[in-house]
Every structure is written in C-alpha cells, then in structure tokens.
Please model this.
Amino acid sequence: MKKSLRVFAPASIANLGCGFDIMGLALDDVGDILDIVATEGNGLSITNATDVPLPEDPEMNVITPVVRKFMDMTGNSANIEITVRQKIYPGSGIGSSAASSAAAAYGLNELFGCPLSEEEVVICAMEGENLASGGYHADNAAPAVMGGIVMIRGYEPLDLVKLPVPGNFYCTVVHPAIVVTTKEAREIMPKEIPMHTAVSQWGNVGGLVAGLYSGNVGLIGRSMKDAVAEPYRKKFIPDFDKLRKKILKCGAVAMNISGSGPSLFALSDNQETAVKAQKIFKEHFDFLGIDSEVYVEKVSNKGAKLLPM
Ligand code: HSE
Model:
C-alpha cells in the first residue's frame, strides 16, 4: 500500500466579535499545505519544509494528536509521513494551529476513502486545537475544514451550522508584532460572567445570525460586539479603542480581535473600504513603533481541499 496526496486548509478568524468559541470564518488564499503519504506499517513522521519554526518534538506538533485521533476513530493503522509545505506563522491569530490540524484531518480522511463525516473530521482537527491552546474549541477548526462562516450550536455533541456568507465581504487582517499566546489570552478571562453581560452577548449572537441570513449589513455591524473576551484582551493591543473608531469611520462594518489575538480584523462589504482599513491599520502600528503585516482577504466559502501534487 502506498497512497499520497497534497492538501490545503485555510486561515480562519474566530469569534467574529460576539461569538466567543462558537463562530468563525474561513479566509480565501492564506493557509497551510501538507503532503501526506501512507504506507504499510505503523508510525508517524513530520518534516517541516518551510522557514516557519515548528516544534522539534513531534508530541508538541498539533498534527500528532490529529493523526492519532483519526486512527482511533476509524480503526486504521498505517505508517504516515507528513511534510509541511506551507505554514501560517504560529501565534498570528488567524488559526495557524487549526489550519494544520484541519489539513491533516481532511487529508487523512480523503486518503482512507472518507470514513468520517465532515463533523467527525472537525472533531479530529479539534485534537490539535486542544494541544495548542488547552481547550477543545472548533471556531477555527470548523471553518478551516468546511469553509464559509460556521457557528457551533453545541459542543456535546458537536453541532455545526454553516451560515450564509454575504457576497463581497472582505476581511482586512493586521498582525502586529506583539506576542500573545492563546493560552495566555484564555487565562486572562474570568471563568464566570455576570447575567447582564450574557444578555448583551446572546442578543448580539442572535443579531449576527439574523444579519447574515438577511444580508443586513447594519445589523451585522451592530451585532459584532464582544462583552465577554474583548474587555480583557484589548489590553494587549495599544490604543485599541482609538483604532476601532478610525476603522469604523472609514466605513468598515466592524473591527474585532481575531480569535485570541494579537491580530485584529476589519470586516468590510466592499474592497475599497477594506483597502482603506489596511492603510489605517498600518499607520496605527507604525506610529506606535510596532511592526505589522496587513493584508486584505475575501471571506471564502471554500474550506480544506486537495491540491495537485
Ligand atoms: N475562540 C478561541 C479564543 C479562538 O478566543 O480563545 C482561539 O484562536
């Protein structure tokens, strides 16, 4: 037996403001590429063919628990060789660990004749997220596998809902050179929230879902507000409130922290505004003397996919 393929999974933006741990969207072109080869035997080797530093110890690589989970769930055994061909920089806040995890889970499923459903592929990918952040969240992994905007209606059992992506939606993503690990960004949050915070948050989640279904851009923008994580996490981003005022003034629908940060994103309903937001992000961090990378990406309906080898 020798089977091989090349697989891509996209970067993603988790939370979308109000949807802490339950909402995420897939971006268009940025993502991870893995080559996966399966031969007779039992084992796993991971080779990094990129310039991006990855853990030397395979036990610390998010791909390892994903492969184990896939073999456990499907009862397969094989010798798996994975080569990482393209990698989003870890810690960038656009779902780097989820892109590798989703690519591994989706690629293995394809290689072994699709024994798992789409939701089960996401469950496999969540093993990588657990290793990276200490929690089983699917808000990056689900869009990285399925594409588009995905809501996690429930975790036990996993219940995923794909939401409509309004046409011509762009994300401007800025990755400032600030280091915030997902673990750190999760630990800074309280374990419980007051009732009035919960009330405003679930009002916004409902508003966002309704806005996406009806294509009501105003409702989408009003709803992308986060009373749960942002008050704690925005401390990592200098002049966060000032920056948001500038971004909204230029016409963007919303600006939020991307996942656990430190990246931020602006959502726009046209490319021109997305490009204006790019300039504002760049100037903001230049003024503060913080290096940053900014790019404009279309919100994508495509998730993980096979590529020619
Ligand atoms: N929902 C997760 C968090 C995403 O906000 O911690 C991590 O990328």
